[in-house]
Design goal:
By secondary structure, the protein is α+β, with helices and mostly antiparallel strands. The protein contains 14 helices and 15 strands. The protein folds into two domains: 98 residues, Nucleic acid-binding proteins (OB fold (Dihydrolipoamide Acetyltransferase, E2P), Beta Barrel); 320 residues, Bira Bifunctional Protein, Domain 2 (BirA Bifunctional Protein, domain 2), CATH 3.30.930. Bound molecules: 4-amino-1,4-dioxobutan-2-aminium adenosine-5'-monophosphate.
Length: 457
């Protein structure tokens, strides 16, 4: 269907005085004695385009003023004196698809919670228009960042036989339904599709390391799955995961890469989505734009885990969860560090080895690993990162201490036998950084179809 994007008409003065065809959905409609007005949105921009009809020459067809109806309008682009923009002087209007009065978006503003009940409709609101344009721009920026810096994009498998994080959060994949005919679990798995237990990958890291040992610098960008039973505003069971893996990089090198990448992506959103950021600033987070400018301008803080624990203890704050060396930081602690103490993104480095994954490089102190989490105000952790243990014996020792089956990780261990090098990588939760950039406070509102415990609409 030949037509022009509303974004193009709004952004290009050459259309003034020209006849165009626009298609879109009715956002608002009103009538005066001689004229009718329709605000049309086609999704290409946050801004609507006003369609003006002169009743003495044009009769609007039935349904043209129904909220949510789809229209095709032919008309002339003329200046709109009120908002310094343009509008369409309609010559003809066709209703492509009517929307009866039970179209759910009749009220101007609806609660985000209410909108979550209708994921197929909520995308038509301004909020989701803005969120998903930013999401798209950020995805492109991430690819560009890595592509322009010599990384190879690899697609790691989603079906896997090994649990990367070892946290027991893997969804099981099976073609065998409920059944009592098997003797035991072993018999059951032997008869299943892969002849062994299989699941959905929680991370592409292990295969990413394989690729990094060949291509030097790689990244993945795809979904990861976590069967975490945590019903929080920051967890979904299916999230998008960006995982670079870099050979010959030690912890300070990968920290510099992570910071550079985040600054690059935020700069790009600020340049390409000013209207969307204005919208988020007004509706969701006062000070959002200044916050993002600060991220671009300032160095992130780097803080030893041991020092962070001392600072939390010294804060005098009453936290729900205990603060003790050797315990993991909970969201309340992470947020206090980044929101109250540093007021900017913070890398916490060198965590106790017992609370981190088996693959992390063991530090010389025998107690900590060369790992870091990047915490940001308002969200908490957005990146999990580490230098990897490149020494075969130390890696085996760490796996044995966790009672892991070495046989399942034969290929991974081979990487330490054949040309092992220092290497590092991280995982950025895509939805988490979108929350940070948009000010949206619930992860369910930055992904098209959130999958959470007990909910898979
Ligand atoms: O810290 P995580 O578990 O690290 C890994 O998976 C490493 N294998 C990454 C690597 O080094 N290649 O997860 C990385 C990030 C977290 O910081 C968080 O942003 C995001 O993934 N994430 C989630 N996002 C949404 N919902 C969940 N359930 C998430 N779990 C992790």
């Amino acid at each position: 269907m030949k037509h022009t994007d509303i974004r193009a008409i709004r952004e290009n003065a050459d259309f003034l005085g020209k006849e165009v065809t626009v298609c879109g959905w009715v956002r608002t409609a009103r009538d005066s004695k001689n004229m009718f007005f329709v605000e049309l949105n086609d999704g290409t921009t946050l801004q609507h385009l006003q369609i003006v009809g002169d009743k003495s020459v044009l009769t609007a067809p039935e349904g043209a003023n129904h909220l949510g109806a789809a229209l095709r309008v032919v008309g002339t682009v003329v200046p709109n004196m009120q908002n310094n923009g343009v509008e369409i002087n309609a010559a003809s209007i066709e209703v492509l698809g009517d929307a009866p009065s039970d179209y759910p978006l009749q009220k101007k503003f609806q609660k985000l919670e209410t909108l979550r009940e209708m994921p197929h409709i909520r995308v038509r609101t301004n909020t989701f228009n803005a969120v998903f344009r930013v999401r798209s721009v950020m995805a492109a920026a991430l690819h560009r960042y890595f592509q322009d810096n010599g990384y190879t994009y690899v697609h790691t498998p989603l079906l896997t036989g090994s649990d990367c994080e070892g946290a027991g959060e893997m969804f099981q994949v099976t073609t065998l339904g409920y059944n009592t005919e098997y003797k035991n679990a072993e018999d059951y798995y032997a008869n299943d599709f892969f002849g062994q237990k299989a699941g959905l990958s929680v991370s592409g890291q292990l295969e990413g390391e394989v690729a990094a040992m060949a291509f030097g610098k790689i990244y993945t960008f795809g979904p990861s799955f976590r069967a975490e039973n945590s019903n929080t505003p920051r967890h979904v069971a299916e999230f998008w995961h960006i995982e670079p893996e870099v050979a010959f990089a030690e912890l300070p090198d990968i920290i510099a890469i992570a910071q550079d990448m985040i600054k690059y992506v935020i700069r790009d959103v600020m340049e390409k989505c000013p209207a969307e950021l204005d919208f988020f600033e007004q509706r969701f987070e006062k000070g959002l734009k200044a916050k993002l400018q600060g991220v671009v301008d300032e160095e992130f803080a780097i803080v030893e885990y041991t020092d962070a624990i001392a600072q939390l203890k010294a804060s005098g704050m009453k936290f729900e969860y205990p603060v003790e060396w050797g315990l993991d930081l909970q969201t309340e602690h992470e947020r206090y560090i980044t929101e109250e103490i540093y007021k900017k993104p913070v890398f916490i480095i060198n965590y106790p080895k017992d609370i981190k994954s088996f693959y992390m490089k063991q530090n010389a102190d025998g107690k900590t690993v060369a790992a870091t989490d990047l915490l940001v105000p308002g969200v908490g952790e957005i990146i999990g990162c580490s230098e990897r243990e490149a020494d075969y014996d130390k890696l085996v020792e760490a796996m044995k201490a966790r009672h892991m089956n070495l046989d399942d990780y034969r290929d991974y261990l081979d990487l330490r036998r054949f040309g092992s090098v220092p290497h590092s990588g991280f995982g950025l939760g895509f939805e988490r950084i979108i929350m940070y950039v948009t000010g949206m406070s619930n992860i369910r509102d930055v992904i098209l179809y959130p999958r959470t415990v007990g909910s898979i609409r």
